[in-house]
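Researcher: Let's run the pair from yesterday's discussion. Sequence first, then tokens, for each.
Model: Starting with the first of the pair.
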Amino acid sequence: MVYDKFQQEAIGHINQGHSVIVSAPTGAGKTAIAEHILSTSIQNRFGVIYTAPIKALSNQKFRDFQSQFGDQIGILTGDVSINPAAPVLIMTTEIFRNKILDEPTSLDKYTWIIFDEIHYIDNPERGTVWEESLIFLPKHMKILGLSATIPNIKQFAAWIESIHNKPVQVVIEDKRPVPLHFFFQCGNEIVDKIDHLKRLKYGRPNKLSTLISYLNQKDGLPAIYFVFGRRRAEELAFESMHHNFLNGKEKQQIVEIYNNLCERFDVKTDRTAQDMFPLIQRGIAYHHAGMLPTLKEVIERLFTSRLLKVIFTTETFALGINMPSRSVMFDDLRKFYGKYVRNLKTRDFYQMAGRAGRRGIDKEGFVYCRVNLHRIELEDAKRVIFGKPEEVRSQLNTSYATILNLYEKYQEELFKVYPLSLHYFQSRKNEQKEALRLIDAKLRLLKELGYIHDGVLSQKGQFAKSVYGYELILSELYEDNVLEQLDEFGLGVIAAGVVFEPRKNQRMPVGISKGTRSIKRVCEETYDRIKHKEERYRIYPFSKLPYFHLSVAMEAWLRGTNFEKMLRFTDVDEGEVVRYFRMSIQTLREISDARVASYLLKDKIRETIRVINRDVVDAEKQLREN
């Protein structure tokens, strides 16, 4: 293989035994560096762990690497365990962090850890997991970090060097192998200079058909159209149905491939798969997290066949999943970030824009931005598109489970761990002080509630250190003997309750069972006690309240109802139902893995998992069928 200069540089450092952080644009070829580590490690019988930020990306990497390296590849993601003793093990970063804290000796045989999308460390919800993984990284493991373009990559590497006392080489590539050419649609006109937007009439709305016709005439297909809402993706796909991008032969080919894939992945009767069929015949599709994971894979495979010409999708399609196209379109330059809508981050923009331009096929990639100057100022649009990518900032918010694991190891010395964090490295004195106060407040709360007694973890503390994210609610229920008394239905309902996050204004379904009402009442009373304590100690964000919107659907599923019928009991999208059921399985496994859980509870959980983990919910089945 002929490597680019930055790839050669990174591989040179790796061959000398150094840890490396690579910062390069999307589509530049960072994966080739990871593949070098995989092939040389397999050859030399070293173990490698490959972590990815989302399960979909973990699954895709498993498929890709397995086709190259066969049974040398395994995967472990909480709801999937295939070939877990393999020399190369793919896992989510959460699983890796938990292994470091709970069973560090299980990592002895691994020499390298590859962090894909390492800039995820500044994700507000999950960045802590990356930070903890790097702080507590076993001394014998070397790092390959793969990152989007970030301006403070050297600061990030200096932090890792400072806590592990060994050099970390930084490789920066600013150039894309396929340059990007930008176009702008405003007032229903298309121009290739952003300053020309000042001269356009804003009164006329941007029409989708104008943009897609323009792309088609300019040989700009296939194209990915990024939207920031699932319903919007579907609506725009159907709005574009009057376009037909396929000739007779291509139509015949795509229909045959689609039908075969739908049969293979058992989604022929799925309503969404049937609704999408007329779009597929025209070379159009949509893709978002509300769809069944199996149907999303069907669409991804169709896209790689190059017969799909326009795909309307949400931004997860840009994260690591290798789906390049000739053009990328942006529905908007603003999106919802956690609590409010704001302008796109430049780094997020380029994560998506970077899908334009196929290496070895296209001389340049084309990016089309639909700009509505009533929604975004021209200067703000320029900043999004031509500004400097945002720096990576720590999002450290140490969980109760992490504090318990650290206390077991270091007792009161655990406060010496905080100065090793990226948060400490980047923060001002007052921010450092507040972070330490928060850790101290959590530790005092754990002691008050009896998780720690006379300097050691109590039985409840031993239980809590295994259940990341939902420690207090589940541990209080465990101590009150609630979990022990539940049957398989109750355990399924409670697991779905702790993981579920309702959408804004989403209502509880009618007709929840008497058993669920009782569980809901106990959970809410327990949660109120926890929240009251957290408020007193000024701990934020508060622990998560359980929500029982999926309880009727979960009970139907546990009774053996088929998936289509079960969906009648919920207004949650089918893909989300699958995701939450899989998360429920992972939470039940964590409860069962607690050393102090009784054999009776473990047996009931095993049965609950067996019944939940079937048909489309069974993630392992989907991967094994590949």
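Model: Moving on to the second of the pair.
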Amino acid sequence: MNREINHSIDAITLRQQAEQQLAAEPECVKATPSDEKRLIHELQVHQIELEMLNANLRHSQAELEQSWANYVDLYDFAPVGYLTITADDVILNANLTASKLLGVEREALINKILAQFIVADNQDMYYLQRKRKLQIEAGAPQAIEVNFIKANGVTFWARMEMNRMDGVKDVQLLRVVISDISQQKANDDYLRLAAVMFQSAQEGVMVTDSENRIELVNPAFTQLTGYSPAEVLGQVPTLPVAGRQDGAFYQSILAEVDSIGYWQGEIINRRKNGEIYPQVLNIRAVRNQHQKVTHYVSVFSDISLLNKALERLDYQANHDPLTGLPNRRLLFSRLQDCMVLCERRSQAAALLILGLDRFKDINEIFGHLVGDEILKKVAERLVERLSCVDTVAHLGGDEFVVLLKHLAHPLDAANVAADIIQALSEAFQLLVGTEVHIGVSIGISLCPEHGKNPEELLQRADTALYWAKEEGGCNYQYFSEQLTQAAVSRFSMEALLRKAIMNKELQVYYQPQVDIGSGAIVGAEALLRWPHPDKGMIPPCQFIPVAEAIGLIGEIGEWVLSETCRQGQQWLEAGLPPLKLAVNLSPYQFRNGDIASTVIAIVNETGFPAKYLELELTETAMMERESVVLLQLERLRALGVTVAIDDFGTGYSSLSYLKQFPLDILKIDKSFIEEVELREDDKQIVATIIVMAHTLHLKVLAEGVETEEQLNFLKAQGCDYYQGYYKSPAVTAKAFAGFFKESLN
């Protein structure tokens, strides 16, 4: 800026000198035209420069004026009051905010004494602070709280800061800053009142910081929980009672509080002495001006007595007063919920109505008091015998109801019915010293087949109960005659199977497995057979499902595995060439046992080499518990056992598990082989399976080969092995040994 001004002065001086020179020249000395033009040109150039410099000066002046205006605005309209006072407390200057706070026009404030705007009780403190500030060098201002009085007499609290500043000719001045803190003071009063409420509240109150560490508790907290402040301050609140609400539940509460600001509900908690109690809990988040959570406030109260009263009323409304069992109202509520779940999840359930036989006679002979005693004892026996059943209800009179949810098979209801009949056929010892026997008839209806609502389902079960009583009592009937007969057949099969195991009627047969390329027998599949002494050969499809339903399949499967290994070792010791013996494993053996340890124990006991043992499992068995199955298979492979996937194509048929699990052989289900020479789609499926298996480095065995055409097709597709009636059906161990020896010649 100074440089531009100097240039302007130089241009003016040069012009003046030129004019003076021209005027001083004698008349006889005349400038030439070229000299005049040159001088005129220079003057014009300097004139332009001068005008440009003047324009820059005007622009700079405008910027200075705008900056000053901005400073004045910031000063005048600052959120705090600014005043400049002398050492004698005379106001020299003030901004508009100070004028507004004191209630006096700014011009009227000038030359007034600041102390006249301070309440008398606070003036001594003000004078002392002003004196201290005049005696020390300028530094960080120290604040005091002063009660001001406006010109209209209204008082307000302000935060005052003073700092010394040097004036003209070493005159001492003070810069005073005041900010209204009336609202803060009001908040402080509110907090004092809140503190009194906090201390005297009957509800427990706990305040935690943003990290959920306890900062404050009230006396009611100690009274309700048993913990003193010293024991909990700085600690993180413990989770609600384990088994009632888990950590995920507690985290969901905090997440909801962070999301919407509060949570209210009932939880179960534990006092210091270990007593468990219910409480109503209300948690709210406290946020700062930036909406960041700074604290959580929890208010809770013990609702034990209230809950007990409500539970007592609810119990009386939903339970039979004589037996204590659920009454019709509660039964229908549970039955309605059950039917909704059955429809939503495609599940099954059963309703059993029990009618006591000869109960009417007992009432007439011994009286109603003895009849009530019988009903109580029946209820006790049912609850004890059916502890795992969801609902046992008493409808009134001699009628009881059992609701079976999550029914795996419709015939499972017959198992429960038979158990009830047996339980209630045992004698009842009465208080009068008399022993009585009663029987029970049971009607069974199924959900959803036999009813669309609870009333209809109950009516159908009642109809079935009538049929059971018509049959002479002490039996059960399904609403469907077909199901009743199926249940009877199943119980008959169960009895026969248990007897067969006891009498060692079950046998292991062996079906040859043949190498397609050479035609040589390279192995055999061990298959369970039941030659019944009276009924002949009972197919596995009839007794295997029963064995699975009654929990015998594990025992049977382990016996088959042990018998196969024993037989294989016996053949080796007899001089027969080694054969791969394949044994089927059921899903039950993976779900309910350590199959790898079982195999290790059996091969160690029998001496049969693990490398000649092949274990077959279905796709369903592998997919039910993938991690467990994978671990077991890896242990078996480490032992040297071959693993085959059985009935491929009938289950998941997924490439992912073929890659994931340690498999050696893939067996094509016989349903794809039966018409492979006739059906083009079966040909495509079989060919695809063989290519896919070979790509994954698996051998392929086709099951159910019965014709030469089927074998030729498999050979053309590169299938490795086959088994089926074309070579031989499953035969006894003795017959297989002879058949195998002949094939070696």
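Researcher: Give me one sentence on the second I can quote.
Model: The longest strand covers residues 155-166.
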